[in-house]
From TrEMBL:
EC numbers: 1.1.1.37
Subunit-level organization: Homodimer.
Organism: Nezara viridula
Ranges of residues in domain Lactate/malate dehydrogenase N-terminal: 16-159
The protein's name in its UniProt record: Malate dehydrogenase
């Protein structure tokens, strides 16, 4: 376990301690850098089975008033996790061309299970944000593990779907020649193919889109991950946009912890919709994670049709995750 401390004359404010599990990976490294740059982070704990001492040493040279520490391998999980308030998990295998996210289950479910078990053991009150795919199944895996330990708090478990939101803003912005940072489109349901349901009818600001534009945008958002996987041609999936998206979600979680009002992000959490036990909806964040689930936005006829296709797939994904731990 290595730690790098900077000693400044200014007293360190009581801010947030964040751990990244899978910190040496394609997402883990840029995500850790963005968190290092976030003034709300007081301590950044980098954990991976490879390379973390070097990654942490590198990041520790950035002139920000925070600790950076590293831990490598399961023997150091206790040191990595003790005292952490937010734990982000991008550990796991990414897709190669031709694979679905569900194909990653056999490699990644056990990684998530074991890491979340350690979180439940060493920092049971931490808010957990899961990046690892398949998110639709890995969140239920995590919930069941935490239940086994008797420490599950549904307000504190999130699957990160923020990449779908930034993609929706970007693609609508490109189409209409508007700065994407000014556009917000809720994306609900899940994070894989047809379970990604953009709610174009609730786009803010209100933008006039034809039915065919909505269909094309919906398909593009649903397939955007696959588009990147194909173009990376075997070298993995989205990492940089994902790191940005993950950092936005963790920033929102931290602002919630700090009591900032009106912090809202869509995320995949426990929420019963049409018997799917987990569902991505807009969430109001607060000091304990979910302050209030804002539920589904108003949907158009097309969006209701998209959900009809998505729900059976999502339910299957959820059951797969639950069964993995329970049977
Ligand atoms: P990567 O292979 O570049 O990095 C994964 C890292 O996880 C590696 O450093 C590896 O050593 C580490 N790791 C593996 N097993 C571990 C364990 N047991 N404990 C700790 N660390 C472990 O992959 P990546 O591109 O960073 O993608 C990571 C995951 O994120 C993949 O499952 C990918 O599908 C997923 N992903 C999700 C989204 C999303 O929107 N939620 C977006 C992109 C990628
Ligand atoms: C994405 O949406 O880019 C991620 O889920 C990674 C993938 O496999 O597509």
């Amino acid at each position: 376990m290595l730690s790098f401390t900077r000693s400044f004359s200014t007293s360190r404010r009581a801010l947030v301690k964040v751990a990244v599990l899978g910190a040496s990976g394609g997402i883990g490294q840029p995500l850790s850098m963005l968190l290092k740059l976030n003034p709300l982070v007081t301590e950044l704990s980098l954990y991976d089975i490879n390379h973390t001492p070097g990654v942490a040493a590198d990041l520790s040279h950035i002139d920000r008033n925070s600790f950076t520490k590293s831990a490598k391998g399961p023997d150091q999980l206790k040191a990595a996790l003790t005292g952490m308030e937010v734990v982000v998990i991008p550990a796991g295998v990414p897709r190669k061309p031709g694979m679905t996210r569900d194909d990653l289950f056999s490699s990644n479910a056990s990684i998530v299970r074991d890491l979340v078990d350690a979180v439940g053991n060493y920092c049971p009150k931490a808010i957990i944000a899961i990046v690892t795919n398949p998110v639709n199944s890995c969140v239920p895996v995590a919930a069941e593990m935490l239940k086994k330990r008797g420490v599950y708090d549904p307000k504190k478990l999130f699957g990160i779907t923020t990449l779908d939101l930034i993609r929706a803003s970007t693609f609508v912005g490109e189409l209409k020649g508007i700065d994407p940072m000014l556009i917000q489109v809720p994306v609900i349901c899940g994070h894989s193919g047809e379970t990604i349901v953009p709610v174009m009818s609730q786009c803010k600001p209100k933008i006039k889109l034809t039915d065919s534009e909505i269909c094309d945008l919906t398909k593009r958002i649903q397939n955007a991950g696959t588009e990147v996987v194909k173009l990376k041609a075997g070298a993995g999936s989205a990492t940089l946009a994902m790191a940005f998206a993950g950092s936005r979600m963790v920033d929102a979680i931290m602002r919630g912890i700090k009591g900032q009002s009106n912090v809202i992000e869509c995320s995949f959490v426990e929420y019963n919709y049409e018997e799917a036990q987990y569902f991505s909806t807009p969430i109001l964040l607060g000091p304990n994670g979910i302050e209030k689930n804002l539920g589904l936005p108003k949907l158009s006829k097309l969006e209701r049709e998209l959900l009809k296709i998505a729900i059976p797939i999502l339910k299957k994904n959820i059951k797969k995750g639950e069964d993995f731990v329970l049977t």
